[in-house]
Amino acid sequence: MEKIPDGGWTAEDLDRIPGLPSHTQLLDGALVFRAPQTVFHMRAMRLLENRLLQAAPPELDVFREMTVTLGKRDRPEPDVVVVRAEALTRLRQTGFRPGDVVLAVEAVSDDSEARDRETKPRKYAAAGIPHFWRVEAGEGEDGAASPVAYVFELEPATRTYAVTGIHHERLKTDVPFPVDIDLTAVARRV
């Protein structure tokens, strides 16, 4: 790998550094590598991507693990993003701009807790992304997996997120478009 440049890496560097591992992100000029993922994380991403694709209107599209260039030194990779369809300009595209993104979703992993709960939502909100969801692996009273989805909407005057719902078992909302997701499906192959 190349020597770290003075001031850290830039968003453009992610496309040109040879040999970077898949799903490398850039936060505050630092490269962030992904640890091996849990079954919860993988199933949550698949469930959300599939259900959002089914529900999204034609003017929107859904992608998994695509970066969003928030600024010169920030290019995170949300687990799932909903973007305006016209944002897809070529099949070799590796990311989007914040103005293209309608919804960013993070499925929290042990190694990404602080990033998914604090750093990324703060940066997404500051960049003006109108909706953010965070999905976590909760545990029901019987010890079975019981995912929890936290739904946020941008408060435009302060560029911060406000919680609009905490969903157990079922995520049902009308924004950014109507969707109804059985969160318990994470425990099953779907």
TrEMBL record:
Residues 12-166 form the Putative restriction endonuclease domain. Keywords: Endonuclease, Hydrolase, Nuclease. This is Uma2 family endonuclease. It comes from Streptomyces chitinivorans. InterPro entries: Nuclease_put_TT1808 (IPR012296), Restrct_endonuc-II-like (IPR011335), Uma2 (IPR008538). The keyword Nuclease applies. PANTHER family: SLL1072 PROTEIN, SLR1083 PROTEIN. One of its GO terms (molecular function) is endonuclease activity. Transmembrane segments: none annotated.
